[in-house]
Amino acid sequence: MDRFDEFDEILRERAKQEPFPIPEDYVGRVFRTCAAREDTPAKRKHASRWAGMAAAVLALFIAVPNVSPAAAAALAEVPVLGTIVELVTFRSWTYDDGHASADVSVPELDGSAAAREVSDQVRAYTDQLIAQFQTDCETLGEGYESLDVTSTVVTDSDSWFTLRVDATETRASGYQFSRFYHIDKITGQVVTLRDLFREDADYVTALSGEVLRQMEERMAADESIIYFPEKFTAIDPEQNFYFNEDGELVLVFDEYTIAPGSMGMPEFTIPAEVYGGLLK
Predict the structure, then answer these.
(1) How far apart are CA 137 and CA 144, in angstroms?
(2) Angle at which helices 3-17 and 69-77 pack, to 10 degrees?
(3) Into how many domains does the chain fold?
(4) Which of 9-13, 83-87, 264-268 has the lowest mean pLDDT?
(5) β-bridge partners, 155
């Protein structure tokens, strides 16, 4: 039994001894607390989008220790729970001059060094997008342009956290792209694709071969599916990825990188046997 299973068992036993009903409006209280940290019209616009996430991220780490002395004592009995990731506020930036518009809304994280590192990375990335948008507005003059940036928590388990930041730039046409930020809660480290594999492992070749195989297989099965296999040489060593609900590795490609815009952002689920022997 690992330390998380041990913790769950302790809480279950303490719960039997001392039930602690959570107030019906608790989720609302949590979200209102988050909202109060930075209350702007743009943030309120996205409030419903984040309500569920606020509850999911904060309920375990704030509600359980505080609603019952027994639960707090149980928490103290476990030496290390792993990295904590808390959603503390939302950073929003909007712009509209009648020709160009922007709506950027991303969370800021806290609770651990890894959470703050991811928050800093997201801030730097969105600052870059905003700066480029402002430069493009000056260049285009009265030409139309828009920037929309949103975020979702893909995974928030006992051992792993993934934040997805989606951006859409629109001029004559739209361009979608994403960035994924991962925290290994067990090690307390921010993780990229490279970090999953041994230093001597040629994971790029293994994963690239599987992506190419799936491209060709999908096109052969459905003539409406179009990729650019002849232009695809290899994945980026830091390719965007996430783990789906089944724990499978999924590689994500930005729009237009390996397929026409009609294909959106292609994703490829990689079987564990392709890369399992290359993991650390």
Answers:
(1) 8
(2) 160
(3) 2
(4) 9-13
(5) 162
266 within 8 A of 275, measured Cβ to Cβ: no
For the ranges 144-153, 167-176, 186-195, which has the lowest average pLDDT?
167-176
Residue range of the domain that includes 122: 3-191
CA–CA dist 90, 87 (Å, integer): 8
- Together in a domain, 133 and 25: yes
Residue 37 has, within 13 A of its CA and on its CB side, a CA count of 16
Q: What is the pLDDT of residues 203-242, one digit of tens each?
A: 999 999 999 999 999 999 999 999 999 999 999 999 999 9
pLDDT in tens, 247-257: 999 999 999 99
Shared domain for 174 and 211, answered yes or no, is no
184 and 48 together in one domain: yes
- Long-range pairs for 30-35 at CB < 8 Å and ≥24 separation? 30/54, 30/55, 30/58, 30/59, 30/62, 30/63, 31/55, 34/58, 34/87, 34/88, 34/89, 34/90, 35/90
Q: How far apart are CA 96 and CA 235, in angstroms?
A: 37
Looking at the fold, whether 81 and 117 belong to one and the same domain comes out as yes
Are residues 210 and 184 both part of a single domain?
no
- Pairing of β 160-170 and β 174-184: antiparallel
Residue 170 has phi, psi (to 5 degrees) of -130, 130
Give the CATH number, domain containing residue 49.
3.30.565.40
Q: Which of 3-7, 111-115, 124-128, 274-278 has the lowest mean pLDDT?
A: 3-7
Of the candidates 108, 112, 122, 247, which has an alpha carbon nearest to the alpha carbon of residue 188? 112
CA–CA distance from 257 to each of 58, 92, 126, 141, 217 (Å)? 36, 28, 21, 28, 19
